[in-house]
TrEMBL record:
Region (Disordered): 143-166
Protein name: IGFBP N-terminal domain-containing protein
A GO biological-process term: regulation of signal transduction
InterPro entries, alphabetized: Growth_fac_rcpt_cys_sf, IGFBP_rP_mac25
Highest taxon in the source lineage: Eukaryota
Places the protein is found: Secreted
GO cellular component, one term: extracellular region
PANTHER family tied to this protein: CYSTEINE-RICH MOTOR NEURON 1 PROTEIN-LIKE, INSULIN-LIKE GROWTH FACTOR BINDING PROTEIN-RELATED
Signal peptide segment: none
A Gene Ontology molecular function term of the record: insulin-like growth factor binding
Protein's UniProt keywords contain Transmembrane helix: yes
Amino acid sequence: PVDPIYSSQKLPAAAMWFEAILLFLLSLQFLEVSTLSCVNCADVDCVKPKKCVYGYVYDSCHCCLQCGQGPGERCGGVWNMYGSCGKKLTCLKKPSNNNALMQQNYPGICAQKDEVESILSAIYQDQTFSVKEKMGKLEMKPRRLKSKASPWKDTNYPVKPSSEKSEAKNMLIYFK
């Protein structure tokens, strides 16, 4: 008989399928999945919070009202675990050229919608950002630096933080 290791014979089709399925199952171990399991809202006893300064927002499962986060408070995160911003506020997340779907899961800081561009430019000197509203949320992406060239081709990097604005100072810790 011929030793199968050194044989030039091909594997039977069933063995090839077995190897393909085994390889697929092994690759599933390296996937990261995050899920949210919500109960039926009819089964939840919601207690409406009293006197919310920044208005009411829904919880992660959209069953119960809770107080909206105020300026400078944390927001967003995976399944919105840090809460939603209140009226006339947006969840300002660290600008990134990374995958937009991944950026949705990042935590942020609540800020006034009309102050987003000035806050970002105060934090990152000489860097500008494109700010667009998409599906009710602000999307911020860094533009290429004009005054300083990036040492890495086709990438942006934040430059030295500024200490010009008081609200920006409070957010520097988050953006470092």
